Amino acid sequence: MSEIQHHDQFPLHLPNDDFDLDGDRLREECGVFGIFGYPDAAAITALGLHALQHRGQEAAGIVAFDGKRFNTERRLGLVGDHFSSEQTIQRLPGTAAIGHVRYSTTGDTILRNVQPLFAELSAGGFAVAHNGNLTNGLSLRRDLVRDGAIYQSTSDTEVILHLVARSRRAPLLERFIEALRQIEGAYSLVALTNKKLIGARDPLGIRPLVLGSLDGKYILASETCALDIIGAKFERDVENGEIIVISEAGIESHKPFPPMPARPCIFEYIYFARPDSIVNGRSVYDVRKNMGIQLAQESGVDADIVVPVPDSGVPAAIGFAQASGIPFELGIIRNHYVGRTFIQPRQSIRELGVRMKHSANRSVVNGKRIVLIDDSIVRGTTSVKIVQMMRDAGAKEVHFRISSPPITHPDYYGIDTPKREKLLAANHSLEEMRRFIGCDSLAFLSVDGIYRAVGHESRDPVRPQFTDHCFTGDYPTPLTDLNGDAGRQQLSLLAEAV
To answer: Do 252 and 382 share a structural domain?
Structure first.
C-alpha cells in the first residue's frame, strides 16, 4: 500500500546526523485481519492486529458492521494505544469486522490514508484493507482522475474502491473481480460488505493471506500468529489468485484468474513474518535457523563467539552457531522501550541514539573474535554503527555475516526500499562494502543458499519458486508505473495538491 515520497540520497560516508538505527531497516509492509459472524468482532480484530503489529506501527484501523451500519475507527499510532480501551470497542459493535495495521511504503502518515478505506457504493457499504503495492496504481489513478474520480487519499488502495464503484456488473463480487483484473502488482486484501467478508490474494501469491476458524466462524489474516493469539484454528493458506467469500451461507472459493505457479515473497522468511508464524507451510523460525546453517557452511570463519543483531538476526545466529560449533552469545542487548520520539534534535543526544536502542554486552564481547549475524544490509549505515559498537566494547575481530544475499534492486511490491543508487550492494564490491562497514570480513548467503534454507535444492532459473527480485532483479509482474511516465505525472499532481 503506497503513497508518494522522496528518499534521501545514498550516503558515500556516514552522515553525522544519521543516528537512527531504524532508518536503515526494511519496513514491514502492512497487516490485515477479518472475521465474520462472531460476537464482538471488533475486539477479536483488535487482538489479531496486536499480533500483526510487527508488520506496521504507524497506524491502525477497524471497520465493523452491526447489521444496519458500518462503524469505523482509524488512528495514528500503535494498536494498543487506541484499541485496547472498552470505550473504543463499544463504538464498533457488530459480528463482522476487518482491520489493518500500516506502514506506508512511501509517503507521510496522515489520517486520511489510514485503512481500512470505506465508501458507500450503489450496492451498499464497502470497506477494504490492503497489504502490498500496485505497480500500475499511479497509471490507473491518473486515468480515473481524468475521468472525474475524486480521491480522498494518496494511497494506491483507493484505486480498488474506484474500480469497484465504476464497474457496471450487477453482483458486488463480480465488480470486485473486475477491479482485480485491472490491477497489477502484489496484494492481499480483506473487504467487508453488509453481507460478506471477502479475501483475495494476487495471482502470484506474493503477499501472504491465511484462512482460520474460531468456534466455527471464519477468519482471514496476514499471518498465522494472528490466529494463535485468539486461539483460532489454522485452516489453510489462501491460494495464489484465489478469492474467498464468507457469508452466513458458509464459505466459497473463486479462482477467476488463469492458473500460475505461486511465487511468494522470500522476504517474509528473511525478515517480515513473525518467527512463530507458518508461511506457505513452512515455519519461519526453522527457515531462519536454516539460513544460519547454510551461511556457516558457505562462509565459516575461525572465531570465539557468534553474536546476533537483535531481534531479526537471532534465529540465523542460532543456526550458524549450531553448524559451526562456535558458542552463541548475546553480545548486543536491545532496549525494546525506546521509541523514535525519544531521539532529541541536539547532536550530542543523537549520537547516544545508538546506545539507547542497542547496547554492547561488554563482558561478553571484550577480547573476543566475534561473528556478527544480521538478516540484511540496505544502505549500510546501521551496520557501520553496530560494528563500531563491537569494537568500542573491545572486540578483537568482527566478522560480519548476512543471512540473505546482497540487496541489489529496489522493491515495488510493498517493501520500503531505497532506490537502486542508494543500495550499498548495488553500487559497491564486496571489498568496498567491507571497508565501508569497517569489519574484518564480510560475507552474504548465496541465492541458492537461501533456497536451500527454504527447502529447495536451488533456484529454478526458468521458473523461480519465490519472488526474489531484490537479489536477482527478476521482477515477476509488469512495472507499468516505473516504465511509463505516470509516476512523474502523478508525483507532480500530488505535490501540487499538498
So the answer is: no
Q: Which amino acid is at 215?
A: D
pLDDT in tens, 418-471: 899 999 999 999 999 999 999 999 999 999 999 999 999 999 999 999 999 999
CA dist., res. 351 & res. 285, Å (int): 33
Among 203, 233, 263, the domain boundary falls at 263
Asked if 340 and 243 sit in the same domain, the reply is: no
Are residues 322 and 402 located together in one domain of the fold?
yes
Known active-site residue 470: no
CA-to-CA separations, 455 to 14, 281, 282, 383, in angstroms, rounded: 38, 11, 9, 29
Distance CA 279, CA 454 (A): 11
Contacts of residues 350-356 at CB distance under 8 Å and 24 or more positions apart, as own/partner, are 350/17, 350/19, 351/19, 352/19, 353/19, 353/20, 353/21, 354/19, 354/21, 354/385, 354/389, 355/389
Q: Is 497 contained in some domain?
A: no
497: Cβ contacts below 8 Å, ≥ 6 apart: none
Q: Which of 30, 225, 265, 470 is catalytic?
A: 30
Is the pTM higher than 0.85? The answer reads: yes
CATH code, domain carrying 106? 3.60.20.10
pLDDT in tens, 25-78: 565 579 999 999 999 999 999 999 999 999 999 999 999 999 999 999 999 999
